[in-house]
Amino acid sequence: MKGKPLGLRDLFSHPLNFFSLGFGSGLAPKAPGTFGTLAAVPLWWLLQPLPLSVYLLVTLIACVAGIWFCDVTARDLGVHDHSGIVWDEIAGFLITMVAAPAGLGWLIAGFALFRFFDVLKPWPISWFDRQVHGGLGIMLDDIVAGLMALAVMQLAAALI
Predict the structure, then answer these.
(1) CB of 37 within 8 A of CB of 90?
(2) How does pLDDT run across 87-125, given as a tens digit for each residue?
(3) How many domains does the chain have?
(4) Residue 68's CB: how many other CB atoms inside 10 A?
(5) Residue 1, domain member (yes or no)
(6) 88 neighbors 66 (Cβ within 8 angstroms)
(7) 32: domain range?
């Protein structure tokens, strides 16, 4: 785990921490990134029936606002990219699920693909993770992981 264990005090010490820490999912003592991605599932479920343009707008807002949220929380915690900061996982999962076909299988596939790319960080994700700092750096590697998972999802959907 990157950084000290977090608690409710951290979640509410700054209003933006509630979002950066994934509505509390980032407080998980083990695998907070996985729990952050799980926290994105209900949000995706609410957004997926909306028109694609609205889904894309909300996802874009989540990404841009996340740069600010994550930067503020990293400074508040005193740790760049603390493992409890999981808004980037939420935004990355929303990217993965853009125009995903309906069905539990696709949801599970999207979840697994996003976690695969986020955890293993193949190039170019690893480059962004090492080279870009601040809120943008926290968000960017997960945005790229989401885009890579999205590409696999859409390729699979086209082939099936």
Answers:
(1) yes
(2) 999 999 999 999 999 999 999 999 999 999 999 999 999
(3) 1
(4) 16
(5) no
(6) yes
(7) 8-159
Question: What's the length of the chain?
Answer: 160
Distances (CA, A) of 155 to 59, 101, 116, 139: 21, 12, 16, 24
Q: Is there a contact between 14 and 74 (Cβ–Cβ < 8 Å)?
A: no
Place of tokens 């695998």: 31
Cα–Cα nearest to 77, from 152, 159, 153, 16:
16
> Considering only CA atoms, which of 72, 97, 70, 98 is closest in space to residue 86?
70
| Global confidence as pTM | 0.95
CA distance 11 to 26: 9
Cis check for the bond before 101: say yes or no (omega within 30 of 0): no
pLDDT exceeding 70 applies to what percent of the chain?
99
